[in-house]
């Protein structure tokens, strides 16, 4: 998808300060990087995240989009300072492949007719073991495809809004068919733009980092993504060099500090705030839509949620 920006002024950045994300060392990538992991069956998402933290000997790591122990697939993990970028990744759509077992024989045509009822907006009550309040809520199932039917087994592909319970969906499909059903296998194949093709196995991650430490190769670079990939999943604001240090000191973003704003931004959106070099300075919440940010002379463009960049990276823009 092409991204369109409105420019308040030309985007320029002093080469003496900051660093282009693509020029970071491996050590810097670990400080502000993301791993797209292929979670194995068995451990919890929390355990797997802990193992990743141990591999790199870092104090912090955090995942977005918990997977049950029996579920495999894409788990996005932020390393060190990148954990602060997780808010912009938390609401990405998810895609799954599931094996659902019907409790009685049902014709394929009848299955297709029932699946149609679960496409679009659906109501769900979180299961008893859920960490959230058991209150009915609406979620969107954007795609629900019957890939294959083999006897009582259904192979389904589901693309859905974050927070959709697939096990609950399988149960409800069985209820609607009048025969009952349960989920036998589940794999998450993507989280937003992060797909299973790009996911790395835990053992591969460990081996690549060991080989890097031993000076054998830098394959670990292929396992790490810069934290700025978070900006690919959220609308962006580009700021002047003179605004960066104020943001790093906790000041909200005023419209006077904006160089460019993505046209899609709406009030209340979570936004990535970037330097002129494309560095993720902070994650914020837009206080105006794009048109207002572009056209206003004063006012707050965005309030801060988390600051990514260290103080002193850029010089003060005020006296």
Description of the molecule:
- This protein has 319 residues and is of the alpha+beta class.
- The protein has three domains: 5-19 and 234-307, PUA domain (Archaeosine Trna-guanine Transglycosylase, Chain: A, domain 4, Roll); 32-90 and 194-227, 2-Layer Sandwich (Pseudouridine synthase); 94-191, Alpha-Beta Plaits, CATH 3.30.70.3190.
- The chain has eight helices and 17 strands.
- It has helices at residues 26-31, 45-56, 108-117, 166-177, 202-213, 220-223, 241-248, 290-295; strands at residues 5-7, 33-39, 61-64, 72-79, 94-102, 120-124, 137-150, 153-160, 181-191, 194-195, 225-226, 236-239, 253-254, 258-262, 270-274, 280-286, 300-307.
- Strands 2, 3, 4, 5, 6, 7, 8, 9, 10 and 11 form a ten-stranded mixed sheet that branches.
- Helix 2 runs parallel beside helix 5.
- The longest helix has 12 residues, at 45-56.
- It is globular.
- The chain starts with a strand and ends in a 12-residue tail after the last strand.
Summary?
The protein has 319 residues and is α+β, with helices and mostly antiparallel strands. 22% of the residues lie in helices and 33% in strands.
């Amino acid at each position: 998808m092409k991204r369109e920006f409105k420019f308040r002024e030309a985007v320029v950045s002093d080469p003496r300060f900051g660093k282009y994300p693509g020029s970071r060392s491996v050590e810097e990538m670990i400080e502000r990087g993301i791993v797209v992991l292929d979670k194995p069956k068995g451990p919890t998402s929390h355990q797997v995240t802990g193992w990743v933290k141990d591999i790199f000997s870092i104090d912090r790591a955090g995942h977005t989009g918990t997977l049950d122990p029996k579920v495999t697939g894409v788990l996005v993990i932020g390393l060190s300072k990148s954990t602060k970028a997780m808010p912009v990744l938390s609401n990405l759509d998810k895609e799954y492949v599931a094996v659902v077992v019907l409790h009685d024989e049902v014709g394929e045509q009848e299955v297709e007719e029932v699946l149609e009822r679960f496409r679009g907006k659906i109501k769900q009550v979180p299961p008893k073991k859920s960490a959230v309040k058991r209150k009915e809520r609406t979620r969107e199932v954007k795609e629900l495809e019957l890939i294959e039917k083999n006897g009582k087994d259904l192979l389904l592909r589901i693309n859905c809004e974050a927070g959709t319970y697939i096990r609950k969906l399988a149960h409800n499909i069985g209820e609607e068919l009048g025969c009952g059903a349960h989920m036998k296998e589940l794999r998450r194949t993507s989280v937003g733009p992060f797909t299973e093709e790009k996911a790395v196995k835990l053992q591969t991650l460990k081996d690549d980092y060991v080989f890097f430490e031993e000076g054998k190769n830098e394959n670990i670079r292929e396992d790490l993504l810069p934290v700025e990939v978070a900006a690919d999943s959220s609308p962006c604001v580009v700021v002047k060099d003179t605004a960066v240090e104020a943001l790093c000191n906790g000041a909200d973003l005023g419209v006077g500090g904006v160089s460019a704003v993505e046209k899609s931004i709406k009030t209340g959106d979570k936004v990535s705030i970037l330097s002129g070099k494309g560095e993720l300075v902070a994650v914020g919440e837009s206080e105006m839509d794009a048109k207002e940010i572009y056209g206003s002379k004063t006012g707050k463009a965005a309030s801060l949620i988390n600051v990514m960049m260290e103080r002193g990276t850029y010089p003060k823009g005020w006296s």
